[in-house]
Design brief:
Strands 1-2-3-4-5-6-7-8-9-10 form a 10-stranded antiparallel beta barrel. By secondary structure, the protein is mostly beta strands. The radius of gyration is 21 Å and the shape is globular. It has one domain: monomeric porin ompg (Porin, Beta Barrel), CATH 2.40.160. 13% of the residues lie in helices and 71% in strands.
């Protein structure tokens, strides 16, 4: 009888192990997602409206890559910004991660049918913290050098999970121009 209780207890603990692992993984900040966002940038008292598509994926436990494409326009002015970056993430705690990385940037302007494009680079450093199982806050500083111009941009972001694989994202970025965005992400 004693042997059956011990065996039953061990079986229960082993059976509960995957559930523990799932809840731990759910408490980590998000690095594996596909997102679509609406964004608006204020430039010289003019609002540029557009979208941003983003992909972020872990390559290993410590390294990740991210790819994004944004388009914004107003009347006959149109700008595209594409970024490809690689980064390193370090878990300070299970629910807090610091990260940094670098990447390539491609920017294209189009005005009245005349187009101009240039390439450059960016460097970024940030932190994300999971306040609760469904709420994450993040801050990132990014240096961008493209088109004979350089900027330091501060990104603030909040993410709210409405399902285990789906979240709503809101953010605000500021540098020379202010930008806000609202979107959704699918997590894998």
């Amino acid at each position: 009888m004693k042997m059956n209780k011990t065996t039953g207890l061990i079986a229960l603990m082993v059976g509960a192990l995957p559930l523990t692992t799932m809840s731990v993984a759910a408490n980590e900040p998000a690095f594996d997602y596909i997102a679509a966002q609406y964004q608006e940038t204020r430039v010289n008292n003019t609002d540029l409206d557009g979208y941003k598509l983003a992909l972020s994926a872990s390559v290993t436990e410590d390294f990740f890559f991210r790819l994004s494409h944004a388009n914004q326009s107003v009347q006959s002015f149109d700008v595209d910004l594409t970024k490809l970056g690689f980064g390193y993430k370090h878990y300070v705690q299970l629910d807090t991660v610091a990260y940094g990385g670098a990447g390539l940037v491609r920017e294209r302007f189009k005005f009245n049918g005349i187009s101009s494009s240039d390439s450059g680079f960016n460097v970024f450093v940030g932190a994300r913290h999971k306040l609760a199982h469904n709420l994450e806050l993040g801050v990132e500083a990014e240096y961008i050098d493209v088109n004979d111009d350089d900027d330091v941009v501060i990104h603030l972001q909040g993410r709210y999970w409405i399902a285990p694989t789906f979240s709503i994202v809101a953010g605000y970025s500021f540098a020379n121009n202010d930008r806000w965005m609202l979107g959704a992400a699918f997590h894998f």
